[in-house]
Design goal:
Blueprint (H helix, E strand, L loop, with lengths): L2 E5 L9 E2 L2 E6 L6 E6 L5 E2 L2 E3 L6 H13 L1 E12 L4 E5 L4 E3 L2 E11 L7 E7 L1 H4 L6 H12 L5 E2 L1
Parallel strand pairs: 2-9, 3-10, 7-12
Antiparallel strand pairs: 1-8, 3-6, 4-5, 4-11, 7-10, 8-9
């Protein structure tokens, strides 16, 4: 399913749903960041996805990381809570979702990089390489907060 992200766009469609999403800021032993290239919009992103019924937030994050990247992680702390009503995601099935995402810091503990139906590329990138990638501004904010090692989680 295709998606279009609108960010502070007065022409964005009106949201008709909201869902809990999770993502993770994961660095390897060299400090490189785990990223995917999404199949639905071709943007690079930190991995993540939607909370499913019966899961905790951390279980959903661990599952999504494994599904999208092949990497197994331990969740270590909260990076931030992102709930910008000016970030709208329109899906090809008619759903128009307002952003609501919880981003965790996680450490890789196993697995092997692999792609999935949601990730056409999975890679470890340096902080410098992040600047040259096509990344949505809302994800860049999470990455910035992850690299900055804030004293307290970000929230809106």
């Amino acid at each position: 399913m295709a998606r279009v992200d609108y960010f502070h766009d007065p022409n964005a469609p009106k949201a008709n749903s909201i869902a809990v999403a999770v993502s993770a800021f994961v660095q390897d032993e060299s400090g490189r960041l785990l990223m995917i290239r999404r199949t639905d919009n071709d943007f690079y992103s930190i991995p993540g996805g939607q909370l499913e019924l019966g899961e905790t937030l951390t279980e959903a994050t661990i599952r999504e990381l494994d599904e999208e990247t092949g990497i197994i992680v331990d969740i270590v702390e909260l990076v931030g809570i992102y709930s910008n009503p000016n970030h709208i995601v329109a899906y090809s099935d008619g759903e128009v979702r307002q952003e609501f995402s919880i981003c965790f810091r996680a450490n890789p503990v196993g697995g092997t990089l692999r792609t999935s139906s949601e990730s056409k590329e999975v890679c470890w990138v340096t902080r410098e390489e992040v600047g040259s990638l096509n990344i949505h501004p809302s994800i860049r904010l999470r990455i910035e907060h992850g690299f900055s090692n804030r004293d307290s989680p970000y929230y809106t």
